[in-house]
Amino acid sequence: APVLAAAGGRGPGGVAGQVLHGGGACANSGNRWFDKTLQFIVGEDGTCGVVYDPAVIDGAVVAEMVDHALEY
């Protein structure tokens, strides 16, 4: 089902909530895999982001992958 609108809308607070934890148990948190090293988040409204575990993967590598994905 479509994701519920976040309280913060598409502003920094709303986007951060969607990307980091899915907006809560009544919204989209069921689609987050908190035990995975790397997650690409793509919302129906165009919101996108990456959540990763910095203890396992280097931030520079993730930045390169995101840049490549945005370019193509």
Automatic annotation (TrEMBL):
GO CC terms, sorted: peroxisome
GO biological process assignments: carnitine metabolic process, CoA-linked
Keywords: Acyltransferase, Transferase
Transmembrane segments: none
GO MF entry, a single one: carnitine O-acetyltransferase activity
Keyword Ubl conjugation attributed: no
Chain ranges of the Choline/carnitine acyltransferase domain: 21-71
Keyword field contains Transferase: yes
Pfam families assigned: Carn_acyltransf
Protein name: CACP acetyltransferase
Lineage start: Eukaryota, Metazoa, Chordata, Craniata, Vertebrata
Name of the coding gene: Crat_1
